[in-house]
Specification:
D-Maltodextrin-Binding Protein, domain 2; 2 domains; about 20% strand; about 325 residues
């Protein structure tokens, strides 16, 4: 009997301690929620972030706003959120690179992807599209590969930086085709696109939202999708796999993360709001028209997906001996 009384007393004490946390989670949010985007305003991540933040503001009844903290390949903003209180009021809208690629390349990371973050929801996937100048004279990936074989290391292939999705797409294609490109890394999409249009480089793989207007204007020719399926905004452009080059899925993605130890009830409320936002027909249509595919899903599904991506890119980075410059 004494043992039962001790157990009951311990349970009561535990409930007393946890009670305020449960109450806080139940009332969440009671003040504005910050979503950190680790890139400058105006880019594709910022665009997606502002769309979902606006919709989540209406769904949660509190302002949800974007805080741009660019730097260090997206890891600077991640470090900021990782050190924030685990209460749901500071969140990280991350790209794949910051949490599943950079950890394999950077000697010192400001966070540990799986120790310091709790998954909330996979927001969108964004395919990489290979584009060339119409003047290059290639109309598909096979012709590009043939040109690269004639000029080993002579075909210039731009990227938005070492270890970026465009760089990874290049590495996967080179491995699948047995060719070598001359990698030309830039500090972001804007300068890479500028030099592509100016003829300084011959090929680039970019997030579809970044280059869609140039494709529609006819100034750049899309020759392949580096994803697992064709894209809704470019339905006539086949994937690299369809053209005979397997294991070339380098799709980028954006996910919402919270600091580790954020209460599950808060995570679930944020997840529900994100799913509802992505299901909104107007928001869904805006994302699809820019080349982003809304996803959603459970926090657990995102956690499993991130681990698979982490392992995949770890193998690619190691095989190619890539280090952050």
């Amino acid at each position: 009997m004494h043992r039962i009384r001790v157990v009951l007393a311990s349970l009561a004490a535990l409930l007393l301690l946890l009670g305020p946390q449960f109450a806080k989670a139940q009332d969440f949010p009671t003040r504005p929620v910050r979503i950190v985007v680790a890139f400058p305003p105006g880019g594709p991540t910022d665009f997606v972030g502002r769309l979902v933040a606006d919709k989540m503001t209406k769904l949660l009844g509190q302002r949800v706003y974007i805080d741009n903290k660019p730097g260090a390949n997206g890891t600077l903003g991640g470090g900021d959120v990782a050190k924030s209180d685990p209460d749901g009021y500071s969140l990280f809208l991350t790209t794949s690179g910051a949490v599943t690629v950079s950890p394999h390349m950077m000697a010192k990371m400001p966070f540990d992807t799986f120790r310091d973050f709790a998954p909330v929801a996979l927001v969108t996937t964004v395919n990489e599209v290979l584009v060339v100048s119409p003047k290059l004279g290639v109309k598909n990936v096979k012709e590009l590969v043939e040109l690269a074989k004639k000029k080993p290391g002579g075909v210039t292939f731009a990227s938005t930086g070492v270890g970026s999705p465009p760089h990874l797409a290049q590495l996967l294609l080179a491995a699948a085709a047995g060719v070598k490109f001359l990698h030309v890394p830039y500090r972001g999409a804007a300068p890479a696109l500028t030099d592509m249009l100016g003829g300084q480089v011959q090929v680039v793989a970019l997030d579809i939202p970044v280059v869609l207007s140039q494709i529609q204007a006819g100034t750049l020719l899309p020759i392949g999708i580096a994803g697992d399926k064709r894209d809704a905004v470019l339905p006539n452009v086949p994937t690299l796999a369809e053209q005979g080059y397997a294991n070339t899925d380098a799709a980028n993605w954006y996910a919402l993360l919270a600091p580790a130890k954020t209460p599950k009830a808060v995570i679930d409320k944020l997840n529900k709001a994100m799913d509802a936002a992505l299901a909104d027909p107007v928001l869904h249509d805006k994302l699809v028209k820019t080349g982003a595919t809304p996803v959603g899903g459970t926090p657990e599904a995102l956690g499993t997906f991130m681990k698979a991506q982490y392992d995949k890119w770890g193998r690619v980075i190691k095989a190619n001996g890539i280090k952050m410059e």
